[in-house]
Design a protein that fits this description.
With 651 residues, the protein is of the alpha/beta class. It contains 20 helices and 22 strands. α12 packs antiparallel against α13, α17 packs across α18 and α18 crosses α19.
Length: 651
């Protein structure tokens, strides 16, 4: 049993620039302190479902990753809350309300938890104050975040504070509420230019202050498309200091938040709480002002285009390789013919171009039952099985463990952080992935696509497997006699043709035996049809029991049966019939039946290579004609024997 502290980290957008820096800070500090981190990752977001209907079902299955851990088993929790879509926060609050362990909230103030936040007021004020003091801006508009985000109001307050200080206007119609992404740039600029026109002051404002860098990039792009010069005509600023802003042209004037320090500090806060020296509930970290080209502080003749091209070329290459890995995974899983081949294909493709140093595919015991999970509290004893995976380039052992353990035994004591992704198809839970990822240069959406394809291909395999079972059942219904389970007359032609051609080619003798139950009508009339069915089934069971040389047994009619065999002889036929008669005699005696059970038989055994140039169908008719004639000769003998009193009908 490990004695190291264990911390659960909840995160979405794990490959996002700001989140990635936070994770690196967490990982470095945790490793130095000997603390085990397990990340529970969601790939849901707030924008995909706005454009694509099926993402609602995807999100329902994806959020299960937050339900996987029993947080009571952890020593602390870290929430990277600035990454969460709206639907996740309430779900997590409900989960965490049941436990009494320290929870650190990164990126936003939450009165229920210790909160590590950027000093938005001071840092955002520094950006606004810079363009007022240094660049003399007076006519300023603000592109704010969504109204339901905590930081939106803090940044508006900071914006208002500075403009109040300098006696500058900041009425409500100077705010445009964006979506925190590049895509709102055109709409934001159109709104602001229209307001400038309404106010009749001048064509363009002095500056547009954006609540984050992505919206600032969108506004700059919208200006470029309209022939508006940045910073010559309009100064544009952002916030957060993401790489995309600092490498762009023009580079965005912004304030970077200390995301890496947030990660490190959260581990320090947990250690203080564990040792009885807790800090204040709200901890603020100052941002750093970066004065770049979009405000005019850095000249536009400095263009980092080559550097930018190299960075994005590397990322595009990784995206292309991951897309190729996805395609190959789809093709190889589509070609699988067994569970083992399917899971091996997953392992092989996960090794290439995914950025995973370690990977384990853990399937729930009922992964193929299309379960929708709303509460995992009663699922701790469910079995998880590692069906494929690798570590250090080698396949891992396929082990089964309890879901409550989360990780297989061999990596529980491993000091490395592990990331757990929910594995699902739409809303249907299958299990989860355990990975050790390379966070650099991988894209959230392309990795999400890889995971969606993995879930879809496993669902495709499940459907193919069920379809194969259904086809086999239908074939059985079509080719099998319902009462006895023997093959029926329809299947006889296929088997005969295959056997006939094989025996002709190899020089084997081939046999058919036609078996007809004696006196079925007598049993039905005197003892009832249930007893007749008993006799029919008993003969069928006896035929199966008597088979020892590959004989294939058929029920071809009410009381008629047929045996087909290859590489056969008269001796084998005699032994088969002796075993069948012995079985029936013992069964009738054991079941204390008041009637005898016997049959008449006719055989035809010959070498197909001796036949003239006839088809298999013609040969089948010839074989049956000979066997049928011999069967009727024996049946007549049985009747004649009974006429002279050779057998009692009733015991």
């Amino acid at each position: 049993m490990s004695t190291r502290k264990k911390v659960a980290v909840f995160v979405a957008d794990m490959y996002g620039a700001m989140i990635r820096d936070t994770e690196k800070g967490l990982n470095d500090a945790a490793k130095e302190a000997g603390i085990k981190l397990i990340y529970f990752v969601s790939f849901s977001d707030d924008f995909s479902r706005q454009s694509y209907d099926q993402y609602a079902k995807y999100d329902e299955g994806d959020i299960v990753s937050f339900e996987l851990p029993d947080v009571k088993d952890f020593d602390g929790v870290v929430l990277i809350s600035q990454s969460f879509p709206k639907m996740h926060s309430a779900r997590l609050d409900k989960i965490l309300s049941k436990v009494d362990i320290p929870v650190i909230n990164l990126g936003g103030k939450n009165d229920q938890y210790y909160s590590l936040v950027g000093d938005d007021l001071g840092s955002f004020e520094a950006v606004v104050e810079h363009i007022v003091q240094v660049h003399g801006c007076k006519d300023i508009y603000h592109v704010a975040g969504p109204t339901d985000r905590f930081f939106t109001h803090e940044r508006i307050a900071a914006y208002n504070e500075v403009l109040d200080k300098y006696g500058l206007p900041h009425e409500d119609d100077r705010f445009f509420y964006g979506n925190l992404w590049v895509s709102c740039g055109d709409e934001a600029l159109d709104y602001i230019l229209e307001k400038c026109k309404e106010k009749g002051s001048k064509k363009y404002p002095d500056a547009i202050v954006c609540a984050n860098d992505y919206m600032a990039i969108g506004v700059v792009e919208a200006c470029r498309n309209r022939g508006i010069d940045v910073p010559g005509d309009i100064i544009v600023t952002g916030y957060d200091g993401v790489e995309m802003a600092t490498l762009g042209y023009p580079s965005i004037t912004t304030s970077s938040q200390p995301f890496y320090e947030f990660g490190r500090k959260s581990i320090d806060v947990l250690k203080r709480i564990w040792t009885g020296n807790p800090p204040d509930f709200l901890i603020k970290e100052n941002g750093v002002l970066h004065c770049n080209q979009s405000c005019g502080c850095k000249p536009l003749d400095v263009n980092r285009g080559d550097e930018i091209r190299q960075v994005y070329s590397d990322r595009i290459a990784k995206m292309e390789y991951l897309a190729q890995s996805t395609t190959n995974m789809i093709l190889s899983m589509s070609d699988a013919s067994s569970d083992e081949e399917c899971f091996a294909a997953v392992e092989k493709n996960a090794m290439v171009d995914t950025g995973f140093d370690e990977f384990m595919l853990c399937l729930d015991q009922d992964w193929d039952k299309q379960a929708v999970i709303e509460d995992m509290s009663n699922m701790s004893e469910r079995e998880m099985t590692v069906v494929s995976g690798f570590s250090n380039g080698k396949s891992v052992e396929h082990v089964t463990f309890k879901k409550s353990e989360l990780l297989p035994p061999e990596i529980i004591d491993n000091p490395n952080p592990y990331y757990i992704f929910s594995l699902h198809h739409l809303q249907y839970y299958m299990g989860y992935l355990i990975v050790s990822p390379n966070l650099d240069s991988y894209n959230q959406l392309t990795m999400k696509s890889w995971l969606v394809n993995l879930g879809s291909m496993l669902e495709n395999w499940r459907v193919r497997r069920e379809l194969r079972v259904a086809v086999n059942r239908l074939e059985n219904l079509y080719n099998r006699d319902v009462l006895t389970g023997l093959y029926n007359r329809r299947s006889y032609e296929t088997f005969f043709t295959d056997h006939y051609e094989e025996c002709r080619k190899k020089g084997y003798k081939m046999a058919i035996m036609i078996i007809d139950m004696d006196r079925l009508k007598y049993v039905n009339d005197n003892f009832g049809h249930a007893e007749g069915d008993y006799c029919i089934c008993s003969i069928a069971d006896g035929m199966t029991a008597a088979s020892s040389h590959g004989e294939i047994n058929f029920r071809t009619g009410g009381d008629e049966y047929l045996v087909l065999a290859k590489d056969y002889s008269d001796k084998k036929a005699e032994e088969y019939l002796a075993r069948l008669r012995s079985y029936l005699a013992e069964k009738i005696e054991a079941d204390n039946k008041p009637y005898p059970l016997d049959f008449s038989v006719g055989t035809c055994i010959r070498n197909p290579s001796d036949d003239m140039d006839i088809s298999a169908i013609e040969a089948m008719e010839s074989y049956m004609k000979v066997a049928d004639a011999r069967m009727y000769i024996e049946k007549k003998k049985h009747k004649d024997y009974r006429k002279i009193g050779g057998s009692d009908d009733i015991k």
